[in-house]
Specification:
The protein is of the alpha+beta class and 144 residues long. Helix content is 41%, strand content 19%. The chain contains 6 helices and 5 strands. It has a 5-stranded antiparallel sheet. Strand 2 and strand 3 form a beta hairpin. It is elongated, with a radius of gyration of 26 Å.
């Protein structure tokens, strides 16, 4: 029945084989890049009802915001959008290379060969060193 309905919609413009192929093809949503003279560079990465998630560059870093659906956006429109990403580049990290060295030595990692032989110990030292930064990430304020 669907096949006949589809054929009637096309009013004979396509063959039944083409209609069958088109009906069952899965269309993957690709990010859509748009630009005109008065708009900022941006890429639509998702559509949600009457709004879109849009990605644009700010200070050399990609930023995502949610804005009302429009064919183009000014830089002002994008900056006024609801943030849909976190500015990881603004996060203050507290890991110290000296602390990493101490944690590696504590696990008997003194040379590159030691590190290559015992990657689990290296990972453990890195995790211990960056544990403070993990806490900073988990408790970061959303206003960044």
């Amino acid at each position: 029945m669907r096949r006949i309905d589809a054929a009637m919609r096309y009013k004979g413009k396509k063959t039944m084989k083409e209609i069958d192929r088109n009906m069952f093809e899965e269309k993957e949503e690709q990010p859509e890049e748009r630009k005109d003279k008065s708009s900022a560079d941006f890429k639509v990465v998702g559509t949600h009802g009457k709004s879109q998630t849009v990605e644009f560059m700010e200070d050399g870093e990609p930023v995502r915001v949610i804005v009302p659906t429009k064919p183009s956006y000014s830089k002002r429109d994008l900056e006024a959008g609801i943030p849909a990403s976190f500015r990881w580049d603004k996060l203050t990290m507290k890991a110290d290379p000296k602390q990493l060295a101490a944690n590696l030595h504590k696990r008997d990692i003194w040379t590159l060969e030691d590190a290559q032989k015992n990657t689990r110990a290296v990972l453990s030292a890195i995790q211990e060193t960056y544990g403070v930064d993990l806490a900073a990430i988990l408790t970061a304020k959303k206003d960044r």
